[in-house]
Specification:
Layout lengths: L32 E2 L11 H11 L11 H11 L6 E4 L1 H13 L5 E6 L4 H8 L3 E6 L8 H6 L5 E7 L11 H10 L5 E5 L14 H5 L5 E6 L12 E4 L2 H10 L7 H12 L1 H25 L10 E4 L5 H11 L1 E2 L1 E3 L3 E5 L3 H17 L1
Parallel strand pairs: 1-10, 3-4, 3-5, 5-6, 6-7
Antiparallel strand pairs: 2-8, 7-8, 9-12, 11-12
Helix pairs in contact: 1-9, 2-9, 3-4, 3-8, 10-12, 11-12
This protein binds pyridoxal-5'-phosphate (PLP).
C-alpha cells in the first residue's frame, strides 16, 4: 500500500459540484411538491411511455450511436440540415462539449451572472477562466457590458434566453446588436432550454438567428417542455465546424435508445405537449399576478419558473415553503427560484408568499 493519492488536475480544486434541486419529502401523509428543478409536472404521455417501454425491451444492446431516427426527425421539424445537428446527454452535456471544444487553460468563457449554475463548473473543468458579467438591476442580461468584456482570450459566450434563474429574456434587437459586436471567431451559444415557454413576440427564435451567423449555436432540450428530464436528451444546432466538434467530443453511446425513441415520440405528439406548456404558461401568469398583488416585485418570466429576489431572507423563505409542502430553489443571499408546477403546488407557494409578505 502506498501513501500516495492519484494526482488530479489543479483546475478541479475548488470547483463546486453541481447542486441539484432538492426532492420533495412528504411528511405525515401530506403531499409534497417539488418546485426546485424546473421540471415538467405532467407525467409522460401514453404514446411516449409506450415508445420508451418498447425500447427498454432491447437495453441489452447499445443504442444507435448516431441517433439516426431522432436526427432525421429534428432535421425535418426544424428545417435544418443533418450536418448542423448534434444530440447529447441533455443540453448540459452538449454545453460541456461546447466548452471542451473551444476553451482550455488561458481562454475565457463568458456568461451573465447569475445564470445557469453549470456554466462556471463546466468552464473550470475545461481549465478555462469564467468571466461573469452581472445582470442589470432588473435581472436581465447586460449585453452591452458583455460585449465590452470581450477580450482576445474570449472563446465562448453563453446567452441563456430566457435566463435561469431569473426567467428574463433578451429581445431580438438587443441580441442582434450584441451579436454584431462579437468577433466572428468567438462562439455564441444561445441556450434556449425554456424556449417553448416564451410568449413575448419580441424574444427571438435562436434558430432564425443561427442561420445567418456561423458563430451562433442554439441549444435545446427535451427535459423541460417535452417532459423527458429523466431520460437525458438535448440537441444543438450549429454550422458544420461546431457541429462536427460536438460529434468528436460526444461520449460514445451517450443518448440511450429509450431517450431517442421517447424524443421522437414526443415530437410526434408535440401538439398535446405544447398544450400542456400553454397551461403552465397560464399558471405562470396566475402566479406572477398573484405575487404582484401581494406586493412582490417579480421580473417578467418567459420560462417555467419565477424569481423572487429575497436577499438575506432567501433561506427563511425557502424554509417556510418547505414547511408548507413545497420545495423551491434557494440561492442564499440572492433569491428563490420557484418552478411553476401543479396548480395546487402553485397555490401553496402563493399562500406562503402572502404570509411571508405580511411578516416582512
Ligand atoms: C438554462 C439551462 N440550460 C440547460 C439546462 C440543462 O438541461 P438538460 O441537461 O436537462 O437538457 C438547464 C436545466 O436546468 C437550464 O436551466
Amino acid at each position: 500500500m502506498t501513501e500516495k493519492t492519484p494526482k488530479l488536475r489543479d483546475a478541479l480544486s475548488g470547483i463546486p459540484t453541481y447542486k441539484p434541486g432538492r426532492p420533495a419529502a412528504a411528511e405525515g401523509g401530506r403531499v409534497a411538491y417539488k418546485l426546485s428543478s424546473n421540471e415538467n409536472p405532467y407525467p409522460p404521455l401514453p404514446g411516449v411511455m409506450e415508445s420508451a417501454l418498447a425500447a427498454a425491451a432491447h437495453f441489452n444492446r447499445y443504442p444507435d450511436m448516431a441517433c439516426t431516427g431522432l436526427m432525421a426527425e429534428l432535421s425535418e421539424r426544424f428545417g435544418v440540415p443533418l450536418g448542423h445537428l448534434a444530440t447529447g446527454t441533455g443540453s448540459v452535456g452538449i454545453a460541456q462539449q461546447l466548452v471542451q471544444s473551444t476553451a482550455g487553460p488561458g481562454d475565457e468563457v463568458m456568461f451573465a451572472w447569475r445564470s445557469f449554475e453549470a456554466y462556471p463548473i463546466i468552464t473550470r473543468v475545461s481549465g478555462a477562466t469564467p468571466v461573469q458579467v452581472p445582470l442589470t438591476p432588473g435581472d436581465v442580461h447586460d449585453l452591452d457590458a458583455m460585449a465590452d468584456a470581450i477580450t482576445e482570450r474570449t472563446r465562448l459566450i453563453f446567452v441563456c434566453n430566457p435566463n435561469n434563474p431569473t426567467g428574463t429574456a433578451v429581445r431580438r434587437a438587443e441580441l442582434e446588436r450584441f451579436l454584431d459586436r462579437v468577433p466572428g471567431d468567438v462562439l455564441v451559444v444561445l441556450d434556449e432550454a425554456y424556449k417553448e415557454f416564451i410568449r413575448d413576440p419580441e424574444v427571438p427564435d435562436g434558430l432564425a438567428i443561427y442561420r445567418s451567423r456561423p458563430n451562433v449555436c442554439v441549444l435545446r432540450t427535451f427535459s423541460k417542455a417535452y417532459g423527458l428530464a429523466g431520460l437525458r436528451v438535448g440537441f444543438a444546432v450549429a454550422h458544420e465546424p461546431v457541429a462536427d466538434a460536438l460529434r468528436k467530443t460526444a461520449v460514445p453511446f451517450g443518448v440511450s435508445q429509450l431517450a431517442q425513441d421517447a424524443a421522437v415520440a414526443s415530437l410526434r405528439c408535440e401538439d398535446e405537449l405544447l398544450g400542456r406548456v400553454g397551461s403552465l404558461v397560464c399558471e405562470r401568469k396566475r402566479v406572477a399576478e398573484g405575487l404582484a398583488k401581494q406586493g412582490w416585485t417579480v421580473p417578467e418570466s418567459q420560462a417555467n419558473f419565477v424569481w423572487l429576489r429575497l436577499g438575506e431572507r432567501t433561506v427563511d423563505f425557502a424554509a417556510a415553503c418547505e414547511r408548507a409542502g413545497v420545495v423551491v430553489r434557494p440561492f442564499p443571499g440572492e433569491g428563490v427560484r420557484a418552478t411553476i408546477g401543479e396548480a395546487e403546488a402553485n397555490d401553496v407557494l402563493l399562500r406562503v408568499a402572502e404570509d411571508f409578505r405580511v411578516g416582512l
